[in-house]
Amino acid sequence: MIPFVDLKVQYQAYKESINARIQNVLERGDFILGQDVHELEEKMTEYVGAYTVSASSGTDALLIPLMAQDLQPGDEIITTPFSFFATVEVILLLKLKPVFVDINSNTCNIDTSKIEAAITSKTKGIISVSLYGQTSDLDAINDIARKYNIFHMEDAAQSLGAVYKGQMSGSVAEMSGTSLFPAKSLGAYGDAGLMFFRDKQFANECRIYMNHGQESRYNHKYVGINGRLDTLQAAVTLAKFEHYEEELNKRQELADFYNKAFNNTSIEFVERSKFTDKHVWAQYSIKVKNRESFAIYLANKGIPTAVHYPKPLHLQPALGFLGLREGSFPVAEKISKEIISLPMHAFISLEARNVIADNVIKALEHSSEG
């Protein structure tokens, strides 16, 4: 079986530095908001080019900036129906109303040409999602946000390290959140996240919300949450971050190999945006017909696949109260039936990538016969 994500091999490659970082935390005993948390924030501020505040998960990295806004129940937040549930979950947790805008069929990111039509007097913000390793057209969304005096937050859970028009994902929108979930291109060994801000004062406010709303010990300025990143997760992330750009280069090499191997097939690629200077390939996702038989064929050959995502957010049972139905967002619905992801990580051997490519082509033939 070829691993979809190989954290075991990655650990063996970085074992010495990971173990040393963990050992240092154990010896210092600074498990909560310790030295490595501050070091990670400093390094990410330099890397991304935005003020960085750590968080306990990618979900909290989206929730906390929303908590720090002046929002009231029923206020509307525009977002995409084609994302992981956390994107809409943070909206609903604050009793806000999600307003979906369909996606671009080529990039699978929000269709910026449709955003303005969804804006009402109750609209307070836009959450764009940078899917599969590249951003949306962030400048276009920023322009809309400024025009209507609303905020723009980038869900950068899949795009840490991506570059849009010369700027890092996380630095273009006024606020962004990313995930360090273990399977991410840069992942901890548990839940972890980071928030990025263009405004230092707002970053400091979100830091207060992140730690129970405490402005100082036992002095609570706000009702916040326990959204702290623990030091062990920061330590693991720092050890991996030393190799992150090297891993991104290897992901690009694998993506180039796949693109060339599948160029003359029936596969429909997720288009690389003209604004994307650097793609981080959080997933290598393609669109195929007869996806189920395609995936079964590969599974029988020991090649795992995944679907990101099989059901759009507006069709999730938890959102039934919105009254949306199949047909509400036809592009997202169509893509959800065709999208499938192949193994993508920095440790896939030359032999394994050839096995994957050969069997993908055979799976296409097999599924078309079915």
What does this structure look like?
It is a single chain. The two termini are 24 Å apart. 39% of the residues lie in helices and 15% in strands. Helix 4 links the parallel strand 2 and strand 3 (97-100). It has two domains: 7-237, Aspartate Aminotransferase, domain 2 (3-Layer(aba) Sandwich), CATH 3.40.640; 243-367, Alpha-Beta Complex (Aspartate Aminotransferase, domain 1). The longest helix has 22 residues, at 7-28. It has a seven-stranded mixed β-sheet with strand order 1-9-8-5-4-2-3, with helices on both faces. Strands 7-6-13 form a three-stranded antiparallel β-sheet. Strands 12-14-15 form a three-stranded antiparallel β-sheet. The model has no long low-confidence stretch (mean pLDDT 98). The protein contains eleven helices and 15 strands. With 370 residues, the chain is α/β, with parallel strands linked by helices.
Annotation keywords:
Aspartate Aminotransferase, domain 1; 15 strands; 370 residues; Aspartate Aminotransferase, domain 2; three-stranded antiparallel β-sheet; 11 helices; alpha/beta; globular
Could you write a compact summary of the structure shown?
The protein has helices at 7-28, 35-49, 58-67, 86-93, 138-148, 200-210, 231-241, 244-261, 291-300, 330-338, 350-369, and strands spanning 51-55, 76-79, 97-100, 123-129, 151-155, 163-164, 167-168, 175-179, 193-197, 214-216, 219-220, 268-269, 276-278, 284-287, 339-342.
